[in-house]
Write a structure and sequence with these properties.
single chain, five-stranded mixed beta sheet, 11 strands, about 20% strand, NDRG, NDRG family member 2, AB_hydrolase_fold
């Protein structure tokens, strides 16, 4: 998918007192149904979707949405979200007339162009704002988007928005693996099963909870960080170890294998295994600070919080029976 043009323009609108001009970038990308042009205002905000607009027939993004996004009270919103304004093919300012006999894309095909835009921008989620035909296009995308952009949806599940925006070698590697997977149809079936999963209905102290030792690990920028924290709150604190790893994103086993290995060794030791195993980088450091708090939910179990640098630190050993929140 190749970029055809990229220019910087200043939005043409009267400025409010104290307001500076917004810079915009206009892009055109090729899709299976032809080229599509869109204009991006602002920069991506961590853990926030982009606002994506699609205009009605007879309009373009400026004539359809400029009055709304110029409105004074709207400024608070646009300061907190990156905006992507899509122009339907041939509707952008200065667009040439299509040749005689040109077959214009159907509305369904226009909807299928949206994943190409999101893939180009490394965006995984959007808030759609559509008018008339644009509303239909966005609705069609919402109904079929999972199938059309399955690789990007899965990447958004695996990695944080910050990681995707950074487009590191790791992201490029896994995007290539998933996008070109020969069994992509099978992956989609697995993905659909995941999205149709039932709630575990865990409840601390209730009839449904895990009775075995558990180690929960989540990256500090993981896309499902809140869900893991909530899960930890529903588990028996005397059987649960909770580790929150810094600089690890959505896949700690890929980005921080050393730290995760060390934490796993301590977890196994707490279960009575590998008592003589040699601890490496984490255990040799003496820079960590360990604080112990009192009871949790009336139990005598202690909650341990460990803070350490991204390079070194010490994890507490001992039997599972402590909830550990670790930043490492």
């Amino acid at each position: 998918m190749a970029e055809l043009q990229e220019v910087q323009i200043t939005e043409e609108k009267p400025l409010l007192p104290g307001q500076t001009p917004e810079m915009a970038k206009t892009h055109s990308v090729e899709t299976p149904y032809g080229s599509v042009t869109f204009t991006v205002y602002g920069t991506p905000k961590p853990k926030r979707p982009a606002i994506l607009t699609y205009h009605d027939v007879g309009l373009n993004y400026k004539s359809c949405f400029q009055p709304l996004f110029q409105f004074g009270d709207m400024q608070e919103i646009i300061q907190n979200f990156v905006r992507v304004h899509v122009d339907a093919p041939g509707m952008e300012e200065g667009a040439p007339v299509f040749p005689l006999g040109y077959q214009y894309p159907s509305l369904d095909q226009l909807a299928d162009m949206i994943p190409c835009i999101l893939q180009y921008l490394n965006f995984s989620t959007i808030i759609g704002v559509g008018v008339g035909a644009g509303a239909y296009i966005l609705s069609r995308y919402a109904l079929t988007g999972l199938t059309s952009s399955i690789p990007e949806m899965i990447l958004g599940h695996l990695f944080s928005q910050e990681e995707l925006s950074g487009n590191s070698e790791l992201i490029q590697k896994y995007r290539n693996i998933i996008t070109h997977a020969p069994n992509l149809e099978n992956i989609e079936l697995y993905w659909n099963s995941y999205n149709n999963r039932r709630d575990l209905n865990l409840e601390r102290g209730g009839a449904v909870t895990l009775k075995c030792p558990v180690m929960l690990v989540v990256g500090d920028q993981a896309p499902h960080e809140d869900a893991v924290v909530e899960c930890n709150s529903k588990l028996d604190p005397t059987q649960t170890s909770f580790l929150k790893m810094a600089d690890s994103g959505g896949q700690p086993q890929l980005t921080q294998p050393g730290k995760l290995t060390e934490a796993f060794k301590y977890f196994l030791q707490g279960m009575g295994y590998m008592a003589s195993s040699c601890m490496t980088r984490l255990s040799r450091s003496r820079t960590a600070s360990l604080t112990s708090a009192a009871s949790i939910d009336g139990n005598r179990s202690r909650s341990r919080t460990l803070s350490q640098s991204s390079e070194s630190g010490t994890l507490p050993s001992g039997p599972p029976g402590h909830t550990m929140e670790v930043s490492c």
